[in-house]
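Marked as duplicate of an earlier ticket. Keeping the data here for the record.
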Amino acid sequence: MAAAVYAQPGSGARFDWGLTGAAELGRVCAALVVVDVLSFTTAVEVAVGRGMRVYPFPWGEQAAEYARRVGAVAAVGRRRMTPEHPWSLSPAALRTAPAVADLVLPSPNGSAISAAASATGVPVVAACLRNARAVGRWLRAQGYGSTDAPVGVVAAGERWPDGSLRPSVEDQLGAASVLDALAGVPGGLSVEAAMALAALASTPDVPAAVRGCVSGRELVEGGFAADVEVAVQIDVSDVVPVLRQDFFAAA
């Protein structure tokens, strides 16, 4: 009985964190939304908006082999980009890199969660601050958000050095932006979703919060301020990347 409550039954929109939260919601939800603002889902939105198919894959050296297997280009770490290979997890770089048909985009958080969630067979949507409202509109138009067809919104979070989950400001705000667009769904919000949404109401300047949070400062101090600036653009995109089978493509 206790295990059943972890899936937040009786609500149309639910919220949880990380790989374990995604697995729990994936058992019962009709659709999942993954939010990894800095930077996986922002990079997915940019790439899909340019017509690319994006294959999620857990972080690791095997990504290159997987890319060869599916006939795709493998993205590399930001610091491993070269003029000859400009595809990486950097949303700013993906805006200007040559468009390819198929891109394998590994990351330790959002991509790994998306790849695992694809095994559930339900649609998995990549959301960020740039497309949160469009994602909410699409989910509602598809009939998700009732108690019979609930939506699970998953904030990816970051990792501590020991591998444990570090909840992150940017992903809570990104998830809250999606939940804000789902606030009127017939099944209502779970308590967890409502509390996540409350963070948005108490944040008067979301871009400033993302720039100033740990993850934002880490990228800025590492020389990737442009990625943060792409990520903090609010509701500038109508692109809704949906993962069906193995890759994200526009809904």
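See parent ticket for discussion. The longest strand covers residues 53-58.
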